[in-house]
Design brief:
The structure holds two protein chains of two kinds. Chain A has four helices and nine strands; from the N terminus they run αββαββββββαβα. Chain A is α/β, with parallel strands linked by helices. Chain A has three domains: about 120 residues, 2-Layer Sandwich (Beta Polymerase, domain 2), CATH 3.30.460.80; about 35 residues, no CATH class; about 40 residues, no CATH class. Chain A has a five-stranded mixed beta sheet. Chain A has a two-stranded antiparallel ribbon with strand order 4-5. The longest helix of chain A has 15 residues. Chain A is flat. The relative contact order of chain A is 0.13. In chain B, about 45% of the residues lie in helices and about 10% in strands. Chain B is globular and about 75 Å long. In chain B, a hairpin with a 2-residue loop joins strand 4 and strand 5. By secondary structure, chain B is an alpha+beta fold. The longest helix of chain B is centred in the middle third of the chain and has 29 residues. In chain B, the strands form three sheets. In chain B, strands 1-2-3 form a three-stranded antiparallel beta sheet. In chain B, helix 5 packs antiparallel against helix 15. Chain B has one domain: Cytochrome-c3 Hydrogenase, chain B (Orthogonal Bundle), CATH 1.10.645. Chain B is built from 16 helices and eight strands. Classes of the chains: A alpha/beta, B alpha+beta. At the A-B interface, helix 2, strand 3 and helix 3 of A face helix 1, helix 4, helix 9, strand 6 and strand 7 of B.
């Protein structure tokens, strides 16, 4: 079996400018992956299937990575004016500072690929959307591997990734007319389910609030989900 | 049917040189005049094995369009699992494919063991193989029983299958405490040890199985109605099957030699001698013959495992099964479940819960080509073709 580096080299040789990166997996499983640029993903996928014989796309997974605040310790060197023994001098001083940085969130789709012909695998590759609000398009690989058809529909349904070129991109598990994407980390349950008849403690409070809101006509229609 | 001979040529499966759209369902033109009849088969149709709907458009008896509709049993199993510890979602895996809870346990345990690097003691590996193969026997006998039931032989043949299934479920109950929701495997082993009496009882059941399979095979091989209804129906070409991610007996009935027990030899499967039955007509009949032949191979594995099972612990005493935090990373573990490739994909962010928990459901993915197999066939055959895919809705909808 070819190593991931060899596969990366093969892709780059055959499709120059494909923009493939190796993502290392620190876990003991040792399943490292390739990150593809969405722009040439279909081309690379065809190459993997037709020339490297990875004919079986087993698993397609959506992952949500929300915006994350990262606290970093940065060493900063600055000039400080000091007065030593009555003489004013400028000295360089290194201080450690904690800075906060906002890493923008994105949606990721992970593909597990095997070869039935050569009995090899898995090759893991992944793609990212630009962000998780308005630019969530990724190319559909359904025309390359048919097995992606339902799984991409499921990811659209539960995560909201728009697969361009998918022949039939409808919701798979939730019903038509449902608004939100329930597998996202910031999804809020709609306040629209029946509370248990013998509600107590926290549930009793929610039930009372729910009924009060219902009487006031504030509860929206079923399935409208959280406001985004 | 000449099994074990045909092998799959890899150049047949890949798409190189094929026309664009070769892996899409064909467009069937209605030949009569007048309107198409649109029927919703399900969600409470007795043949759908649960709550599943097929929106079918018919021209007379012929299927022109077929769209499966999912989600009636959806409870977002994956989201539930992401909100609880690794161990806490083990009982929930029982509810995926509720006929084969033990193989679900195994697939999940395997994925977590890949993530954490835990080792499994020898005796536990043998117990896992024994239970998985018993589960396969349960699943395949039920599947064949359902097939005969769905052709109209109401009741009796299915009860033959269920009689045998019940003997095995009794064994499960004696060992794990539950007939179907076994919740038996743990990360790095099994929950409780099997007693010598249990192993004896299992040997007794396994000794009786070949006789039952012979009897059951008579139903398939010699029944003229059954053969007329299933032979040449619902053909699935091997290249499309591979491209559509079909796995399990459905794939092997299309002549593709791919059994994860052989390919990955996870657990200790490389120690057992068994063959991989393949179909050569790629139709509904082949799918059930492949299951029947797999039953025989499973019985062979069971006999070997019950003979060789060593003593020792079933759980590493030092293994941590609760409250552990795998270091950040990801792992994909898969096994050959009775319905196909069952995989679990886990991403850890270093916390006590999985950051991402994904089930690769063989039942759902095997349904991808349901439409292709049914188009142009009679509506009565849809029931059989659907039955030959062998799905459980608990896993399809998750």
């Amino acid at each position: 079996m070819k190593t991931l580096e060899e596969i990366k080299a093969a892709i780059e040789a055959a499709r120059p400018g494909a923009g493939v990166e190796i993502v290392t997996n620190p876990s003991v499983s040792g399943q490292h992956s390739l990150r593809l640029a969405p722009g040439c993903a279909v081309d690379v996928a065809r190459f993997l299937r037709d020339e490297l014989f990875f004919d079986f796309l087993s698993n397609v997974t959506g992952v949500d990575w929300p915006d994350k605040e990262i606290a970093e310790k940065v060493k900063v060197t600055r000039q400080v004016t000091k007065t030593v023994d009555g003489v004013e001098s400028t000295v360089e001083e290194t201080v450690e500072e904690t800075r906060k940085r906002l890493a923008p969130g994105y949606l990721e789709v992970v593909y597990h690929l095997f070869s039935m012909a050569l009995k090899q695998g898995p090759i893991v590759f992944r793609m990212r959307t630009v962000n998780r609000t308005d630019q969530t398009e990724l190319p559909s690989l359904t025309h390359v591997w048919r097995s992606a058809e339902f799984q991409e529909r499921e990811i659209w349904d539960l995560y909201g990734v728009v697969f361009t070129g998918h022949p039939d991109l409808r919701r798979l598990l939730m019903w038509e007319g449902f608004k939100d994407h329930p597998m996202r980390r910031d999804y809020v349950d709609p306040d629209d389910f029946e509370y248990e008849p013998t509600a107590h403690d926290a549930v009793l409070k929610r039930a009372q609030a729910h009924r009060a809101a219902q009487e006031a006509g504030a509860v929206g229609q079923e399935g409208t989900g959280a406001a985004r | 049917m000449s099994d074990y001979k045909v092998d799959y040529q890899f150049d047949a499966a890949i798409g190189a040189g094929k026309q664009e759209g070769w892996n899409r369902p064909p467009v069937i033109e209605p030949d009569g005049e007048g309107e198409l009849l649109e029927v919703a088969m399900g969600p409470h149709h007795p043949s759908t094995h649960g709550v599943f709907r097929m929106d079918v458009a018919l021209d007379g008896e012929r299927v022109i369009r077929l769209k499966p509709v999912f989600g009636y049993l959806h409870r977002n199993h994956e989201k539930l699992a992401e909100g609880m510890s690794y161990l806490a979602s083990m009982p929930f895996t029982d509810r995926l494919d509720y006929i084969c809870s033990l193989t679900n346990n195994w697939a999940y345990a395997l994925a977590v063991e890949k993530l954490t690097g835990q080792e499994v003691p020898e005796r536990a590996e043998y117990l896992r193989v024994i239970l998985a193969e018993l589960t396969r026997v349960v699943n395949h006998t039920s599947a064949i029983g359902f097939l005969i039931q769905e052709m109209g032989a109401s009741g009796t043949p299915l009860m033959y299958a269920f009689r045998e299934r019940e003997k095995i479920l009794d064994l499960f109950e004696a060992l794990t405490g539950a007939r179907m929701m076994c919740n038996y495997m743990r990360f790095g082993g099994c929950r409780v040890d099997a007693s010598a009496a249990w192993l004896g009882a299992t040997r007794k059941v396994v000794t009786g199985l070949p006789g039952f399979v012979d009897e059951f095979e008579q139903l398939l091989r010699t029944n003229e109605i059954l053969m007329a209804r299933t032979q040449g129906v619902g053909i699935l070409l091997p290249d499309l099957a591979v491209n559509a991610g079909v796995t399990g007996p459905l794939l092997r009935a299309s002549g593709v030699n791919y059994d994860i027990r052989k390919v990955d030899s996870y657990g200790i499967y490389n120690r057992f001698k068994f063959r991989v039955p393949l179909g050569d007509h790629w139709d509904v009949y082949d799918r059930f013959m492949v299951r029947l032949l797999e039953l025989r191979e499973s019985i062979g594995i069971l006999e070997q495992a019950l003979k060789e099972i060593p003593g020792g612990p079933v759980m590493d005493a030092k293994a941590k099964i609760r409250g552990f935090r795998p270091k950040p990373g990801e792992a994909y573990g898969r096994i050959e479940a009775p319905k196909g490739e069952l995989g679990f994909y886990l991403i850890s962010d270093g916390g006590p819960n999985p950051y991402r928990y994904r089930v690769r459901p063989p039942s759902l993915i095997n349904l991808t080509i349901l439409e292709d197999m049914c188009l142009g066939q009679n509506v009565a055959d849809v029931v059989l073709i659907f039955g030959s895919v062998d799905i459980v809705l608990g896993e399809v909808d998750r």
